[in-house]
Amino acid sequence: MGLVTLEYVLRKARLGKYAVGGFNFFTLENLQGIAEGAARQNSPVIAMASTGAMKLFGEKTTAAIARTVAEEYGVQMVLHLDHCTDMEILKRCVDNGFTSVMIDASSKEYQENVDITAEAVDYASRYGCSVEAELGHVGGKEDDISVDERTAMFTKPEEALKFVKDTGIDALAVAVGTVHGFYKSEPKLDFPRISAIHELIPEMPLVLHGGTGVPEPDFIESIRRGVCKINIGTELKSIGVYETSRLAYLEDNGQDPRKVSKKVVKACADIVAHKLEVFGSVGKA
Ligand SMILES: [Zn+2]
Fold first, then answer.
1. Long-range CB contacts (within 8 A, 24+) of 216-221
2. How far apart, in Å, are the Cα atoms of 247 and each of 253, 255, 269?
3. Could you list which residues have their CB under 5 Å from ion ligand 1?
4. Which domains does the chain have, with CATH numbers?
5. 8 alpha carbon to ligand 1 midpoint, in Å?
6. How crowded is residue 170: how many other Cβ atoms within 10 Å of its Cβ?
7. How far, in Å, is the centroid of ligand 1 from the Cα of 232?
8. CA-based angle 30:241:39, to the nearest 5?
9. pLDDT band at 262, cuts 50/70/90?
10. What is the DSSP-derived secondary structure letter of residue 256?
11. In the chain, where does DSSP find H-type helix?
């Protein structure tokens, strides 16, 4: 086992009608937790590093750590660059052995998104690295916009068909009602839109961003309608790493940081293992 491509795990997920969890990591313990959760469930898993994490660790260190952790835990892991808007960082990740990258030009006009995405595909694919791109725009808590404005940014099925043909991507992130960060009110997913997109591009794995706080039945319904990758970031960051560390440091009186590390690994592993079960990927590695 070790690092595998996104294309590989998502092709199997699409045929098997389950989703593979994509989990963000910011620390070593966070990454170990992702690997431990996947090992416990004998499930494939996607470890996602942001460009912010690149600035913290560097591409070379991130790739070396992820490869080693995947081997240490004996898991089938994709090392994925999440939401990259900087082509230079993306290329360095490909050069250093990332097996998947997401180019995010979703805030641009259609043709510019196509051109930037196609450049990423051209670079990554010659090294066998997979590419995810976004069409429509999945916002976050930084966007203070109305429901109508949000709906206007949803992925349009006809445009998705054209985008996939124009770019040659391996996975498509769709804007269908989820947002990044914690939800202020219950998320409302546009299920008919997911189905409409899937019917036009049935072989394209669809990606759901902003998974933290989405009710479990909504995950299952999304998967039934063609979603093959679900991203979870905020829950791991805020609860798995931050809150667990804070409480563990208070309990320990600053005597042994290893105790804190162990608790973070376990908290992240518990979150990941549970999500993998919901996504239906247990035993699929
Ligand atoms: Zn995202």
1. 216/278, 218/187, 218/189, 219/19, 219/278, 219/279, 220/278, 220/280, 221/189, 221/191
2. 10, 14, 17
3. 209
4. 2-279 (3.20.20.70)
5. 21
6. 24
7. 8
8. 35
9. very high
10. -
11. 6-16, 28-41, 51-57, 59-73, 87-95, 110-125, 147-152, 157-167, 191-200, 216-224, 234-235, 244-252, 257-279
Rounded distance, CA 29 to CA 12, Å?
A: 28
Contact of 120 with 131, CB cutoff 8 Å: yes
Place of tokens 């293992």: 273
**Per-residue pLDDT tens for 193-216?**
999 999 999 999 999 999 999 999
pLDDT score of 142 more than 60:
no
- For ligand 1, the distance from its centroid to the CA atom of residue 255, given in whole angstroms, is 37
Q: What's the longest Cα–Cα distance across the chain?
A: 59
Return the higher-pLDDT residue of 1 and 271: 271
Catalytic residue among 82, 104, 170, 218: 82
| Mean pLDDT (the chain, rounded) | 94
Give distance in angstroms: CA of 209 to centre of ligand 1.
Answer: 5
Share of the chain above pLDDT 70, in %: 97
pTM for the full predicted model = 0.96
Q: Are strands 206-208 and 227-232 parallel, antiparallel or unpaired?
A: parallel
**Minimal CA–CA distance to 95: which of 60, 135, 66?**
60
Does residue 82 have an active-site annotation? yes
The one-letter code for the residue type at 111 is: Q
Closest by CA to 228, choosing from 12, 3, 2, is: 12
- Ligand 1 midpoint to CA 179 (Å): 8
